[in-house]
Amino acid sequence: MNVILPLLVALPLGAGFIIALLPKKHTKAAAVISVTASIIILVGSAALFGYEGIYEIGGWNAPVGISLSIDAFSWIMLMSISTLTLFVLLFSADYMKTYTSRSRFYVLFLMMVAGMNGTVIAGDIFNRFVYVEMAAIASYILVGFGCGSKELAASLKYAVLGALASSVTVLGIGLFSPR
Q1: 115-157, pLDDT tens digit by residue?
Q2: What is the spatial distance between Cα 165 and Cα 39, in angstroms, rounded to a whole number?
Q3: Cβ contacts of residue 40 below 8 Å, gap of 6+?
Q4: Residue 123: φ, ψ to 5°
Q5: Whose C-alpha in 45, 52, 88, 91 is 20 to 30 A from the C-alpha of 110?
């Protein structure tokens, strides 16, 4: 059952990669791929109900390798993220028709989903920080997606505050880590 854990991060990244390879005119295919990936992630998250465990990627132990873990709280968070992701993608299909690069939106959105899922199931603080940054960078770009002056100003403010928060987080990890 724990084989599903890495797929919750790899599937949105893979779907985003496939969408990035599509020509720009295939926006309907991009929407179908992203919604399909979202449905699979929701079903995979639901399949983890009641399961608690750790998955070590590549069989490497936790201090050296990447470990993913799930418990009841992380399952609730995964279900929340997966459900909201599906609703946002269904809503945005009509809304994003006003923008020219819908495929880029889907790629960035799936990257953000992968980061959020990884944040919830990361087994250590370093990988959790990496996933948070992955989701944050995608969200900075999504905030400025309209390319108007207000969107770009908001994206810049968000990025500056996010960089400040990341710096404080890294400082806190360094100060409070065992020596």
Answers
A1: 999 999 988 888 888 899 999 999 888 888 776 778 788 888 8
A2: 32
A3: 11
A4: -95, -10
A5: 52
93 — pLDDT class (breaks 50, 70, 90): confident
Reply yes or no on whether the pLDDT at 94 is more than 80: no
Give the list of residues 6+ apart from residue 154 with CB closer than 8 angstroms, or none.
Answer: 143, 144
pLDDT over 90 at 13, yes or no: yes
Q: CA 28 to CA 18: how far, in whole Å? A: 13
Q: Which residues on adjacent β-strands are paired with residue 28?
A: none
Is 83:91 a contact under the CB 8 Å cutoff? no
Which residue has tokens 């993220």?
A: 81
Residues in the chain, total: 179
Give the per-residue SS3 of 87-109.
HHHHHHHHHHHHCCCHHHHHHHH
- Checking 17-23 for CB contacts under 8 A at 24+ apart, the result is 17/107, 19/103, 19/106, 19/107, 19/110, 20/103, 20/107, 22/103
